[in-house]
Amino acid sequence: MMNGKIIPLFVLHFILFVICVPLMGFSIATDTISSNLFLKDPDTIVSSGNVFKLGFFTPENTTNRYLANRDKPLKDSSNTVTISKNGNLVLIDGRNQTVWSTNAKTSHVNTILRIQDNGNLILLDNATGIIIWESFSHPTNTFLPTSKVFDNLNTGEKTLASSWKNGSDPVVGSFTSGLQALNIPQLFIWKNRLPYWRSGQWNGQIFIGIKDAYHSNIHYILVDNHAGIIYITDYNPTSVLMKFTLNSSGSIMQTLWNDQKKDWDIVWSIPQNECDVYGTCGPFGSCNAQDSPICSCLRGFEPVNKEEWEKGNWTGGCRRRKKLECDQSNNTSGARGNGDGFLKLKFMKVPDFAEQFPSRQENECRSRCLRNCSCIAYAYDPNIGCMFWSENLIDVQRFAGVGYDLYIRLSTSELDNNKVKRLFIIIAVVMAIFCISILIFIVRCWMVKRKGGKTKGKNTFEPRKTISLDSTTIVLKDESQEVNIEELSLFTFEMLANATYQFHDNNLLGEGGFGLVYKGKLTNGKEIAIKRLSAASGQGTEEFMNELILISKLQHKNLVRLHGCCVEKEEKMIIYEYMQNKSLDVCLFDPTHPSRNILDWMKRFGIIEGIGRGLLYLHKDSRLRIIHRDLKPSNILLDEDWNPKISDFGMARIFGGNHDHANTTRVVGTYGYMAPEYAMEGIFSEKSDVYSFGVLMLEIVKGKKNTHYYNHEWSLSLLGCAWKLWSEDNGLAFADENIVNPNLEKEIVRCIQIALLCVQEFPKDRPTIQTILSMLNCEIVALPVPEQPVFAEKWNGLHGSSSQPISQVGFSVNEVTLSVLNGR
Ligand SMILES: *[C@@H]1O[C@H](CO)[C@@H](O)[C@H](O)[C@H]1NC(C)=O
Ligand SMILES: *[C@@H]1O[C@H](CO)[C@@H](O)[C@H](O)[C@H]1NC(C)=O
Ligand SMILES: *[C@@H]1O[C@H](CO)[C@@H](O)[C@H](O)[C@H]1NC(C)=O
Ligand SMILES: *[C@@H]1O[C@H](CO)[C@@H](O)[C@H](O)[C@H]1NC(C)=O
Ligand SMILES: *[C@@H]1O[C@H](CO)[C@@H](O)[C@H](O)[C@H]1NC(C)=O
């Protein structure tokens, strides 16, 4: 498994860095070394676009010199790199000894070495252009966006990154990382060749065991040539430089180059907690980072060694409490385990060692598993099909709000047991609610009597009290006006817990930017949505108050209505009206969702207009000037009549009347919806919202998500595709097949043109939301001609390569709002 050759090579020094910090030596003005040229320490060669350079370097706390000689430190700087007589790249020290060589079998005489702008160092035959050796196939501890991480199932060779021993010694350390493509592909970090972290299975879009993948903006594809050679590669749609590095303590860090700081910013890393470490809770154990202790046995299982388990040594794992019927019948009776049943566990990172069976139906997985006594669990994914497990369930984790349903086989007695228990709990809860209700009723009656029947307000959903004044009187800087949210209803934690059955998973609606959203039902039958901010989410009091103040002050048909909030100890919750049709995201982009077909052009246009009106209210009509900053489909909720309501104001900024735009040190928003000037420079204005609105319009017309969309034929993104078709007078071809109708052509094409006006590169070229609404209503008849959008082509990096992928899936998810790029 681990016999891939690892040849270290260090090429990660940015020329951008060099320009600012004068270095000794000089850069040879070339990106190439040919056989009659030498690279002498401390000279360097630089890629043609000034992005990467190659040269000797010294790690911190040492004086050793390194280039590719990871395990043979050089003591002085009398070393050279050149091309040997047989065409290999060689590193020669001061005593004329070969320290390192590419060792490729070659008979090429005329080879040259070139460093490319994507960070790849290639040795090629100058006459034929054949690549003899490349550094991307021999990474040290870093994967770059366009490098390909191979697993060759025929030869067992893998592209493996291996960690340094420590920060000052590049020699191969304990950790390696690469792709394991056998069965269902997974990424791994190994520690001394044993699994240390596992990405979970590839489902054609993401690795399903990485919690953040469900919301991330990393774009990557898995290519399978169906001949045993599989690779994964990722690419970066923006011009930001990115790398993944395996550090000496076994973490993979994703970093972005920050040109202002001249340094790398860490934007993501894995493993993030003990639960991410492979098999922390042992076989049949389940890890939940939010629980204390983090490990528990799966239901129906008990610790193998109770004492060790209670001491926090979970590696022994758990064992089955009640034998399966399968085991008892010894496969001789005809029943063959039909007496067993399955317990459903939601939001799981499913175990390692899954066996795949292609199937389009979840039911088939169940019946297949039931029929086979070695099958102890199954899960289903439309793309993977059935996943079956036998023997062991290892490396199971419970996520919050994302993940897969895992069905584990239990004996019916165990399942009944659970049912009985649950029934008891339900009865107890119902009794308790009943008693409390009566008590409240009595107390209220008594109070009403005492006040002589005087009741205040129209609190139909019975909040207990309102927030006390002094803690909530907030002065808005830009308005110098006191806002007090006295009218806001305060709910108690208990009320909300009861309304959601103690925040039971069955009531989970989804995961918002900063916490989980639950559906709840108050005792009076009113349905509500509750956003429960997780203490760990990093959404501070600032964003919380921001959202509260903003929404409580705003009232518009196309903005979500706030019912109240709850602030108790660590808990912060916001209560909204509940939306029958969930979010635009759910209704429009899930091809299997029934409402997709209900959304005809009339409804879609209504949604576009509604969002526009909501936005106009934010920008102009409300007393404040508000920039939403995070408009995207998951933030557009739909009521039962498909009226759109803008939600999630955690990011919104209030503007003083005399500013046209503002700069921010924290770029928050979602890739794919952020205007270029905002994503790159942190400048935001109403026009950045207009940009996001333009993207939304195109998505609604196309019925596809911007970041999930890629046109293979033309190598174009959603924006690029819209522009191409529109400028070729073929706009209707861009629209969703479900809504195309020649009678609507004028209207749809007009809508596409308006959207293209919104996504233009320069903010000044984009119309205001007022103008957009006038255009939509045809109050303005003649439309200007839009410029080509900047993010039109983004897959170039991939198509420049010479490989012939037979199947590939483009992917990116874009739910979570990220805050990166700490500039200025
Ligand atoms: C280094 O070794 C090569 C052959 O290995 C030889 O041709 C060359 O003259 C040597 N150079 C020096 C400076 O000793
Ligand atoms: C790194 O490892 C080397 C041994 O390989 C050791 O001599 C050195 O002290 C270590 N440096 C640090 C900073 O731990
Ligand atoms: C490796 O990266 C992780 C996550 O960024 C960090 O916590 C850890 O300190 C790093 N280890 C070293 C040796 O730098
Ligand atoms: C943890 O428990 C296992 C048995 O369950 C035992 O073999 C192992 O030595 C224990 N490890 C520690 C550190 O106590
Ligand atoms: C039962 O499942 C095991 C393990 O998943 C598999 O190896 C075996 O072929 C299956 N047997 C039948 C009859 O499907």
UniProtKB/TrEMBL annotation:
InterPro entries for this protein: Bulb-type_lectin_dom, Bulb-type_lectin_dom_sf, EGF, Kinase-like_dom_sf, Pan_app, Prot_kinase_dom, Protein_kinase_ATP_BS, S-locus_recpt_kinase_C
Record's protein name: Receptor-like serine/threonine-protein kinase
Domain Apple: from-to ranges: 326-411
| Lineage of the species this protein comes from | Eukaryota, Viridiplantae, Streptophyta, Embryophyta, Tracheophyta
Under PANTHER family, the record lists:
OS06G0693000 PROTEIN (PTHR27002:SF1082), RECEPTOR-LIKE SERINE/THREONINE-PROTEIN KINASE SD1-8 (PTHR27002)
Belongs to which family? Belongs to the protein kinase superfamily. Ser/Thr protein kinase family.
> Which residue intervals define the domain EGF-like in the entry?
271-307
Q: Which SMART domains is this protein grouped with?
A: B_lectin, PAN_AP, S_TKc
- GO CC list: plasma membrane
Question: Which reactions are catalysed by this chain?
Answer: L-threonyl-[protein] + ATP = O-phospho-L-threonyl-[protein] + ADP + H(+); L-seryl-[protein] + ATP = O-phospho-L-seryl-[protein] + ADP + H(+)
PROSITE patterns, per database record: BULB_LECTIN, EGF_3, PAN, PROTEIN_KINASE_ATP, PROTEIN_KINASE_DOM, PROTEIN_KINASE_ST
- Record-linked Pfam families: B_lectin, DUF3403, PAN_2, PK_Tyr_Ser-Thr, S_locus_glycop
Q: What keywords tag this UniProt record? A: ATP-binding, Cell membrane, Disulfide bond, EGF-like domain, Glycoprotein, Kinase, Membrane, Nucleotide-binding, Serine/threonine-protein kinase, Signal, Transferase, Transmembrane, Transmembrane helix
The Gene Ontology biological process annotation of the record reads: recognition of pollen
Major place of localization?
membrane
Domain Bulb-type lectin, chain residue ranges per copy: 30-136
For the ligand (ATP), the binding residues are 531
| Enzyme Commission numbers on file | 2.7.11.1
Instruction: Please report the stretch or stretches of sequence annotated as the Protein kinase domain.
Output: 503-791
Q: What class of enzyme is it?
A: transferase
Q: Enumerate the GO terms in the molecular function aspect.
A: ATP binding; protein serine kinase activity; protein serine/threonine kinase activity
